[in-house]
């Protein structure tokens, strides 16, 4: 046994002192021989005793040190064994070599403790600790208790360190367990006791009352009140009726998971209330949670209910901090026969236009006939109010070219009526107005930088709102029940000024937008749709002329027929197909038309056509009334209407995109969302 370090130096001190004594003796001889002789005797005695102890007694001292070390190690081992903190030693592969009593009490010292630590806690995903890592921490559970597991490298010698590359070898790994069961339970209890603010609005209160005899109206209201109160009271919540068709509710956070798993059964439960009313009552629910205060939760609830109403009602929206989730929304939104809202929005838009020097009108990327027609309608409103207006248009597709040809090089319209996005960015300033039509999502707009440059923004759209909606709009007119944005703009034009005269080309463009979005008045067509079409017909829109503009070329028609021919029926109700995009100017338009064609097949409830264009895969989804394709497309990052929706996929092949669509539909069917 070799000694080193401080212990070796301590045992060598007598020798060092012997050398010092000899030096003192030699110095004494220099002064006096007699003094030197006197000093020599004790010096020799001291050195002899030191050498005797060093060579003769050294083995005895080593034995004493060894016995002390053994006793000390036993004490340390006993301390580790009795340590309250569960402790274990692992080898480099994570196999358990030794555990103390506390660790054994947790795992009850069954045979499993001889296995690897990863096998003992299989759900934690424990990986072997790297030699270059000092410590790794995992959250693990064992027999309904929760622990924090610390793994730490132990180096066998003082010279071993992670920085050494040659011959580096880890000795052992120490594992510590810290019981956090009570801490997690207390945190969960605190989370469960948090209050969730909510708002419940009846979507069609007035319409439902009008569809029933007057003597039964109070009974209908009472039954609805009872349904809502019973639903909230079953969770220990509070309901307060704040208006005839609005309720404020408060529930505990612990009931939210049950509400979500049941997909807010109140939505369907209220529809069962029928005492002779021709129209089923639907409601919208907005819940706010995850805020820093109760006031913030209430603001979240207001945002959520606005989202629910903006998406057509008959659904629940939960806003948890920055996360928004949607539930329900399976029924078609009820059309409002009153035009009061259109008149109010028209007057507000007129005031904004009159207070700005110039107006920029912008649709969505790869603009279609509806966005262009709506933009032209807003241009007419600006022209009537003597304001300069520009329509921002970058990509010109084959579907909009026939309309553009009637405006470009036309002496009745300025040359800068249509401008590119970069030019619009140069001309825009703080005194400009930006009108966004046919889109309410920031990243889908034709030129999104304009949203940051121009402070005054107006949004007119008929698509359901999503979490990515434009939030800084001064005026937002989003009506999901409208068939098209052109229908909404046609109504606005009737109230924005006295005797607004729409030219023939403009009427054709807006009429075409309605025709295309309604698939020749077959989808999402209501009373106000025909009224808007009649208004445009009175202003010169011609059905035959519009039909001629949108006839397909032979190549486009063959591509559409090819997509229909190769359609695959998935889950006996969904038609999925791929539209060939080779040598076609606007394959996305053809894909949308093919999706409409597939709905004419018996048994098909919804169709999805995929088209590859400009390194992206575009999805066009259509349905008649049984399936909400909007929520399918939202799962894939898109959106739209209940019967007309779309999405874009990137960084995947066409085969992967098809599988992704199938997996999404399958999952939603299994979870009862469709």
UniProtKB/TrEMBL annotation:
<dbReference type="GO" id="GO:0016787">
    <property type="term" value="F:hydrolase activity"/>
</dbReference>
<feature type="binding site">
    <location>
        <position position="368"/>
    </location>
    <ligand>
        <name>Mn(2+) 1</name>
    </ligand>
</feature>
<feature type="binding site">
    <location>
        <position position="462"/>
    </location>
    <ligand>
        <name>Mn(2+) 2</name>
    </ligand>
</feature>
<feature type="binding site">
    <location>
        <position position="438"/>
    </location>
    <ligand>
        <name>Mn(2+) 1</name>
    </ligand>
</feature>
<feature type="binding site">
    <location>
        <position position="438"/>
    </location>
    <ligand>
        <name>Mn(2+) 2</name>
    </ligand>
</feature>
<feature type="transmembrane region" description="Helical">
    <location>
        <begin position="12"/>
        <end position="29"/>
    </location>
</feature>
<keyword id="KW-0812">Transmembrane</keyword>
<feature type="transmembrane region" description="Helical">
    <location>
        <begin position="35"/>
        <end position="56"/>
    </location>
</feature>
<dbReference type="InterPro" id="IPR014528">
    <property type="entry name" value="GdpP/PdeA"/>
</dbReference>
<feature type="binding site">
    <location>
        <position position="364"/>
    </location>
    <ligand>
        <name>Mn(2+) 1</name>
    </ligand>
</feature>
<dbReference type="GO" id="GO:0005886">
    <property type="term" value="C:plasma membrane"/>
</dbReference>
<keyword id="KW-0472">Membrane</keyword>
<dbReference type="InterPro" id="IPR001667">
    <property type="entry name" value="DDH_dom"/>
</dbReference>
<dbReference type="GO" id="GO:0046872">
    <property type="term" value="F:metal ion binding"/>
</dbReference>
<dbReference type="InterPro" id="IPR051319">
    <property type="entry name" value="Oligoribo/pAp-PDE_c-di-AMP_PDE"/>
</dbReference>
<dbReference type="Pfam" id="PF02272">
    <property type="entry name" value="DHHA1"/>
</dbReference>
<feature type="binding site">
    <location>
        <position position="370"/>
    </location>
    <ligand>
        <name>Mn(2+) 2</name>
    </ligand>
</feature>
<feature type="binding site">
    <location>
        <position position="517"/>
    </location>
    <ligand>
        <name>Mn(2+) 2</name>
    </ligand>
</feature>
<dbReference type="InterPro" id="IPR003156">
    <property type="entry name" value="DHHA1_dom"/>
</dbReference>
<protein>
    <recommendedName>
        <fullName>Cyclic-di-AMP phosphodiesterase</fullName>
        <ecNumber>3.1.4.-</ecNumber>
    </recommendedName>
</protein>
<dbReference type="Pfam" id="PF24898">
    <property type="entry name" value="GGDEF_GdpP"/>
</dbReference>
<keyword id="KW-0479">Metal-binding</keyword>
<keyword id="KW-0378">Hydrolase</keyword>
<dbReference type="InterPro" id="IPR000160">
    <property type="entry name" value="GGDEF_dom"/>
</dbReference>
<keyword id="KW-1133">Transmembrane helix</keyword>
<comment type="function">
    <text>Has phosphodiesterase (PDE) activity against cyclic-di-AMP (c-di-AMP).</text>
</comment>
<keyword id="KW-1003">Cell membrane</keyword>
<dbReference type="InterPro" id="IPR038763">
    <property type="entry name" value="DHH_sf"/>
</dbReference>
<dbReference type="Pfam" id="PF01368">
    <property type="entry name" value="DHH"/>
</dbReference>
<comment type="similarity">
    <text>Belongs to the GdpP/PdeA phosphodiesterase family.</text>
</comment>
<dbReference type="GO" id="GO:0003676">
    <property type="term" value="F:nucleic acid binding"/>
</dbReference>
<keyword id="KW-0464">Manganese</keyword>
<feature type="domain" description="GGDEF">
    <location>
        <begin position="193"/>
        <end position="321"/>
    </location>
</feature>
């Amino acid at each position: 046994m070799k000694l080193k370090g401080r212990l070796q130096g301590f045992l060598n001190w007598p020798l060092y002192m012997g050398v010092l004594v000899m030096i003192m003796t030699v110095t004494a001889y220099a002064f006096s021989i007699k003094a030197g002789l006197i000093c020599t005797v004790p010096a020799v005695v001291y050195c002899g005793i030191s050498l005797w102890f060093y060579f003769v007694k050294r083995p005895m001292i080593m034995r004493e040190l060894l016995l002390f070390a053994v006793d000390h190690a036993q004490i340390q081992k006993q301390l580790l064994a009795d340590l309250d903190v569960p402790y274990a030693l692992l080898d480099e592969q994570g196999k358990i070599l030794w555990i103390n009593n506390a660790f054994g009490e947790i795992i009850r010292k069954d045979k499993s403790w001889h296995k690897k630590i990863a096998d003992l806690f299989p759900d934690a995903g424990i990986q072997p600790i790297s030699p270059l890592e000092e410590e790794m921490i995992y959250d693990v559970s064992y027999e309904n208790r929760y622990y924090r597991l610390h793994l730490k490298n132990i180096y066998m010698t003082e010279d071993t360190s992670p920085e050494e590359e040659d011959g580096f070898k880890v000795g052992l790994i120490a594992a510590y367990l810290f019981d956090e069961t009570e801490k997690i339970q207390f945190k969960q209890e605190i989370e469960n006791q948090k209050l969730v603010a909510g708002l419940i609005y009846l979507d069609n209160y007035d319409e439902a009352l009008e569809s029933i005899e007057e003597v039964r109206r109070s009974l209908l209201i009472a039954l609805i009140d009872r349904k809502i109160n019973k639903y909230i009271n079953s969770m220990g919540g509070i309901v307060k009726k704040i208006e005839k068709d609005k309720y404020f509710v408060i529930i505990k956070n612990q009931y939210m998971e049950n509400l979500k798993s049941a997909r807010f059964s109140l939505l369907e439960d209220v529809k069962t209330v029928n005492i002779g009313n021709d129209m089923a009552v639907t409601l919208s629910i907005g819940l706010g949670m995850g805020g820093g205060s109760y006031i913030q939760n209430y603001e979240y609830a207001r945002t959520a209910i606005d989202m629910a109403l903006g998406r057509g009602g008959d659904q629940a929206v939960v806003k948890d901090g920055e996360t928004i989730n949607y539930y329900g929304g399976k029924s078609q939104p009820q059309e409002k026969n009153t035009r009061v809202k259109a008149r109010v929005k028209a007057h507000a838009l007129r005031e904004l236009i009159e207070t700005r020097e110039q107006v920029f009108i912008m649709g969505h990327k790869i603009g279609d006939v509806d966005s262009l027609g709506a933009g032209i309608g807003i241009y007419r409103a600006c022209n009537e109010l003597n304001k300069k207006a520009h329509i921002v248009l970058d990509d010109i597709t084959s579907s909009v070219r026939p309309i553009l040809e009637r405006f470009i090089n036309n002496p009745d319209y300025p040359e800068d009526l249509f401008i590119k996005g970069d030019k619009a960015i140069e001309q825009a300033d703080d005194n400009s107005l930006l009108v966004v039509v046919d889109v309410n999502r920031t990243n889908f707009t034709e030129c999104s930088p304009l949203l940051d440059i121009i402070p005054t923004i107006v949004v007119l759209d008929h698509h359901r709102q999503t979490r990515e909606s434009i939030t800084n709009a001064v005026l937002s007119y989003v009506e999901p029940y409208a068939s098209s944005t052109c229908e909404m703009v046609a109504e606005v034009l009737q109230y924005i000024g006295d005797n607004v005269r729409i030219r023939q080309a403009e009427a054709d463009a807006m009429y075409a937008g309605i025709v295309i979005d309604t698939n020749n008045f077959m989808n999402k067509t209501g009373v106000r749709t025909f009224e808007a079409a009649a208004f445009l017909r009175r202003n010169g829109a011609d059905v035959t002329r519009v039909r001629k503009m949108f006839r397909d070329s032979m190549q486009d028609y063959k591509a559409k027929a090819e997509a229909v021919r190769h359609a695959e029926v998935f889950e006996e109700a969904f038609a999925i197909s791929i539209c060939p995009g080779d040598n076609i100017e606007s394959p996305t338009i053809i894909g949308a038309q093919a999706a409409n064609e597939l709905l004419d097949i018996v048994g098909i409830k919804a169709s999805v056509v995929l088209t590859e264009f400009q390194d992206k895969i575009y999805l066009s989804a259509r349905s008649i009334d049984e399936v909400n394709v909007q929520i399918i497309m939202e799962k894939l990052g898109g959106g739209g209407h209940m019967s007309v929706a779309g999405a874009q996929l990137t960084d995947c092949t066409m085969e992967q995109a098809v599988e992704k669509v199938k997996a999404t539909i399958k999952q939603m069917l299994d979870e009862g969302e469709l």
